[in-house]
Amino acid sequence: MKTIVSPSLLAADFTNLQADIDMINRSEADWLHCDVMDGVFVPNISFGFPVLEAVKRICTKPLDVHFMIVKPERYITRTAKLGAMMMNVHYEACTHLNRTIHEIHEEGMKAGVTLNPSTPVCMLEDCIQDVDIVLLMSVNPGFGGQKFIENTYAKIGRLRKLIKDSGSQALIEVDGGVNAETAPKLKRAGVDVLVSGSYVFKAEEPEQVIKTLSSPLPPFLSL
Ligand SMILES: O=C(CO)[C@H](O)[C@H](O)COP(=O)(O)O
Ligand SMILES: [Co+2]
Description:
8 helices; binds cobalt (II) ion; TIM Barrel; Ribul_P_3_epim-like; isomerase; globular; alpha/beta
């Protein structure tokens, strides 16, 4: 089965976003992952609504928006208005996660819940049936180009079990350090969606990289 690929805009060339988004539009990428950072929840500031709105005007792929901000519920309506397909909020940033998930759905978007590397998947036991996607951070959020945290493979297994046992339909998305070495192992571990920033946008042939990320593993590697 093909893997959903969501290249991360954070690694694009901000002096020529049009060229990089043209590449995404031509490519086999399924979604475009947009990292919004506030300098409080994470120690970095990326971009906000003016950039998201401009990107939405020229990008033909659905936007998968990853909010690394405190109290993301303040921006649900605005995110829906810009036309995002999915709003990903951090478990660690939401005091009333149940309400936030329902508000995201009421605004017509898919609801994603993101876990930092140190947050265990069992924290999702009481909301897994309500979410469309769980985004596992495989780096500490805030920066692109970091080293993949190996414990993510085992975490995917624990999350897969939680999803199965609860009868949830949630997809498993992994973000951070996804490249030629980690992607096949993530596929074998059962990931549904791969986010990849530097590996895609710094590649000589980014469209080919996206195609390879989305391809199923050869049968002898899927064992
Ligand atoms: O959420 C993120 C960082 O907080 C980015 O989506 C992620 O880091 C992607 O970058 P790379 O593939 O270069 O690791
Ligand atoms: Co991200």
